[in-house]
Amino acid sequence: MTEVVRVTICTTCVLGQAGFAATLAKALPAAHIQTVECMSGCTRPSTVAFRARGKTAYLFGEITEADLPLLQRFQDLYAQSPDGDFPDARVLGDLRLKAIARIPG
């Protein structure tokens, strides 16, 4: 059974206030979308996190609606990865430049 990927969006950030969680829910139907009031990424808003049990978690900042295809691609790659690690970050495209943190699983 595939572990569910949890995607969390900050609702304090502008994108979160604009209802981006609903957009993510439509774009990432296999993921569990949740919101949180603040993810302390204020120097690089708007923030989105990906995590799954036993996998490295990722926090991205400076996300815009234009990043939706990158987030979709990341979710697919992340779901397929056994541990959430990517030996070569270039597969993440420009999303790798928006990474704030990688947190070991």
Characteristic terms for this protein:
105 residues; five-stranded mixed beta sheet; alpha+beta; 22% strand
Describe this structure in words.
31% of the residues are buried. This protein has one domain. The mean pLDDT is 94. It has helices at 14-17, 20-27, 68-80; strands spanning 6-10, 32-36, 48-51, 57-60, 99-103. 24% of the residues lie in helices and 22% in strands. It has a 5-stranded mixed beta sheet with strand order 2-1-3-4-5. Strand 3 and strand 4 form a beta hairpin. The chain is built from 3 helices and 5 strands. With 105 residues, it is an alpha+beta fold.
Helical/strand content category: alpha+beta
Mean pLDDT: 94
- Sequence of strands across the biggest β-sheet: 2-1-3-4-5
Cα-atom Rg, whole angstroms?
12 Å
Number of strands: 5
Largest sheet: 5 strands, mixed
Tell me the number of helical segments per DSSP (H or I, 4 or more residues long): 3
Fraction of residues in β-strands:
15-25%
**What is the H-and-E element order?**
EHHEEEHE
- State the helicity in percent bands: 10-25%
**Outline type:** globular
Low-confidence stretches: none
Q: How many structural domains?
A: 1
Task: Give the structure's gist in a few sentences.
The chain is an alpha+beta fold. The chain has helices spanning 14-17, 20-27, 68-80; strands at residues 6-10, 32-36, 48-51, 57-60, 99-103.
Topology:
Elements: E1 6-10, H1 14-17, H2 20-27, E2 32-36, E3 48-51, E4 57-60, H3 68-80, E5 99-103
Parallel strand pairs: 1-2
Antiparallel strand pairs: 1-3, 3-4, 4-5
